[in-house]
């Protein structure tokens, strides 16, 4: 059924995002979705619709909430032209990531038991929250080739490494330490 383009398009048009206007009609939702999606890109709409349907069917297996449904905060457009493609051998050779087996024999080989060894990720991974670690892993897994993006990142790094901004950085880091999962907070407060 989900090989059918029209079914996928209908699923995309029924998508509800946290940032859309409250209590909007189907026509208003379609207008809003057209601002964040190019519905003329048939392959993208088809792929997104199939992905949404897969999440609908398998959400109980993917989430701790058995009876809940997935909530989507926003859609982000990703261009493959801006991403540098790197194979696993290159990641290994450059020691970007390095997984170590768990030192306890009982946990060795168990899913999620590997720890990060000496790697570039470990050296740079001074994040204050789990979300920060996950975001850093994504940035290092999919590096950008877009000069403007790289310049913005460099500007942020330069700003926070200046001695006069040290107290600001420490305040932000201490606040971020208490943020666990933004999605749960959104659902608790009805945001």
From TrEMBL:
It holds the Pfam family MutS_III. This is MutS protein-like 5. It comes from the Eukaryota. One of its GO terms (biological process) is mismatch repair. InterPro entries: DNA_mismatch_repair_MutS_core, DNA_mismatch_repair_MutS_sf. It comes from Papilio xuthus. Residues 110-180 form the DNA mismatch repair protein MutS core domain. One of its GO terms (molecular function) is mismatched DNA binding.
């Amino acid at each position: 059924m989900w090989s059918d383009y029209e079914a996928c398009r209908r699923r995309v048009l029924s998508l509800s995002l946290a940032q859309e206007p409250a209590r909007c009609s189907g026509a208003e939702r379609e207008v809003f979705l057209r601002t964040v999606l190019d519905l003329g890109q048939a392959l993208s709409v088809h792929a997104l619709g199939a992905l949404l349907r897969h999440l609908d069917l398998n959400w109980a297996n993917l989430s701790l909430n058995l009876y809940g449904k997935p909530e989507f905060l926003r859609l982000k457009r990703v261009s493959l032209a801006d991403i540098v493609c790197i194979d696993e051998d290159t990641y290994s050779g450059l020691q970007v990531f390095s997984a170590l087996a768990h030192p306890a024999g009982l946990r060795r080989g168990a899913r999620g038991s590997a720890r990060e060894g000496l790697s570039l990720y470990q050296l740079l991974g001074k994040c204050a929250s789990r979300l920060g670690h996950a975001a850093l892993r994504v940035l290092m897994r999919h590096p950008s080739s877009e000069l403007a993006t790289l310049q913005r990142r460099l500007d942020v790094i330069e700003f926070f490494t200046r001695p006069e901004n040290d107290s600001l950085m420490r305040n932000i880091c201490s606040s971020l330490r208490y943020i666990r999962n933004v999605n749960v907070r959104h659902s608790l407060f009805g945001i």
